[in-house]
Design a protein that fits this description.
By secondary structure, this protein is an alpha+beta fold. Helix content is 31%, strand content 21%. A five-stranded antiparallel β-sheet has the order 5-6-9-7-8.
Amino acid sequence: MGVHSRGKVPRGAAAGAGALAAGTAPTTAAAAVATTTEAAVGAPKGHIGPADPRYAFLAGRGYNERFIGSPDHIRLVGSTDDVVRALNDAVRAGKRVAVRSGGHCFEDFVDDPAVRMVIDMSAMTAVYYDPARRAFAVEAGATLGEAYRRLFLGWGVTVPAGWCPEVGVGGHVAAGGYGPLCRRHGLAVDHVFAVEVVVVDRGGNARSVVATREPADTNRDLWWAHTGGGGGSFGVVTRYWFRDLPEPPADVLSFTLQWSWEGLHEPAFTRLVHNHGRWFERHGDRYPDLYTEFLLFRRQQGTIMLIGQVSGADAERVLDEHVAALGDGVGGPTSRTQERRPWLAAALKGSEETFGWRMKVKSGSLRRPFPARQIAAASRLLTKDAPDIVSGAVSLNS
């Protein structure tokens, strides 16, 4: 399996496993005492109610500040067994449950007033190689940035996933999240070999299940359900196992282009947006290492922005061609900045997202450019002079 073989596991990990097998682990009695003590000390700390000083932060750490939850309890879990216990408690109490990993859900699925228990996965952040499954395991509470850092520094590989390093792995992977490397290497879900999910059976009892993509696996449908169908639908994901992970490029060229709204009348705006869609329709397959986000902000915000990254020895040429095609009949950007960075540095910096948003988001997929009538409608709304509209944007991501 190339870079995924056991021989690629760091020496420290192999030595630690060998020492444990040689009998350096605590005796059974000592281990039992330690486990019991840890459970006694740790269990109450995971039950967080409104009077707990941590409650306000955990209840309000969602990305979209339109929604602030008020659950009866937040269960800060540290293991799969903790999740099983939390779900059993919720079922017995008849409480609606939601799950939070990174907190980047744009809607109120977690913060809905009907949700009375939130299972917070942010303490489950392990990233490691599992020799038994010949796959890399990532717990659901790990952020993308932490997964990138550990996978790359440990084994020289990565999961092709999102551009925002603070996004949690749990919901992002199951929902088909994408990012700069996905046009070259596919989505993160394309590399999921197995998933551990805590489900509730017909009798109302929670239990953990590992579902794999193996054809003979009786739980294969549960694996399939987590390859783009969204998080929190069939159970609580506690970890993923990935196989055939790609090596990221050594470095990438990150860039930001801006067009001023000043003088950008509707025909020019229509041409600019059409140029963008036409270029990807015609050339997208030729340039899988170019990723862009075309941010069409409202006129009141001053500019339209194109951000992204491109890799490869000819990265500058590809970007130049793309910028020239965008500006055909419109003119080039009013500003352009670009910088080569090591891949990991760029991945950990991400798109430099800002927080504190109160928003409504709707998304869809395009195979062809927007027709002129839809671009004209976007132009009218983005230039509408309405004091009650604070901000707004159309984001076209490649």
